[in-house]
Write a structure and sequence with these properties.
About 45% of the residues lie in helices and about 30% in strands. It has 4 helices and 4 strands; from the N terminus they run ααααββββ. A 4-stranded antiparallel β-sheet has the order 1-2-3-4. The longest helix has 22 residues, at about 55-75.
């Protein structure tokens, strides 16, 4: 009985996450995969990537590796990624996730990642 009451109270105190929060967290997760050199995982976060030909997908993996190498040369590499904000753009029917890229040389860069919902999941546009 006490366990049921605690679960009920705990469930009532938790708020559901907004679509903005969910889209932002998804964008951060995809960039965390890029940071971890999981290029396939990063690309799985792109909308409609499952329908591209294998040779194009291989080119995209190569482009991700080159991007990561460029960051290494310019800033010593990417250290962490944090979510700074996410906003809805109702005119374009998408979310904008604002991520801070923290580089190893202490430089920070904010990027905007447009996010769309596909089959109940947030994907990068």
């Amino acid at each position: 009985m006490l366990t049921s009451l605690l679960l009920l109270i705990g469930g009532c105190s938790q708020q559901e996450q907004s679509p903005e929060e969910l889209a932002g967290m998804a964008a951060k997760e995809y960039y965390d995969r890029l940071l971890a050199e999981d290029y396939e995982g990063f690309l799985s976060g792109k909308a409609d990537m499952d329908s591209v030909p294998d040779d194009y997908r291989a080119q995209m993996v190569t482009a991700c590796k080159q991007y990561k190498q460029t960051l290494e040369q310019m800033h010593g590499g990417l250290a962490t990624v944090t979510l700074s904000n996410a906003k809805c753009d109702s005119t374009q029917q998408l979310m904008h996730a604002f991520l801070l890229l923290h580089f190893k040389d202490s430089v920070k860069e904010e990027i905007t990642v447009p996010m769309v919902q596909r089959d109940g999941q947030w994907k990068m546009r």
